[in-house]
Amino acid sequence: MKTAPAILLLCLAIVFIQDWKFRKIHVILPLLIFAISFFMIAVEKYDLLEIVLFNTGFFLTTLSILTIYMSVKSKGFLNPFQHYFGLGDLLFYVAIAPLFLLKNYILFFVLSLLFAIILQFALKKFIKEETVPLAGFSALFLCIVILKDSFLVFQKITLL
Fold it and tell me: Is the pTM of this model over 0.85?
């Protein structure tokens, strides 16, 4: 494995540890993840700006629909960052946008949410907080996906 993917995996491991322990991630981590991802994919044959814009657009559309749904349900505006979603989660999902084509980003997004739900229920005895470390669990899932893509030759999900 080359240096850049190893640094990316290290950053993802730190996101997992920080989010698990503190329910916060340092803002530099998503910036590093984005920069490393962008650097690794930029040399390929893809229009990276288009990929990032489409993936970020999908994520922000999903977050907006979730906000509208929650606000209608509670009969008043509900800020998703105060009740359901952390700023670190937002930054994380935007930071990984360069790693996927849109259909694979959507697949990763859905599977990472399922992975987080399953882990939350499986580790319920060990988790004292009521909140889910979504960015951390998603980072752990991304580590698994990157390792799978690096060592197994079938059905790559990432652009690495």
Answer: yes
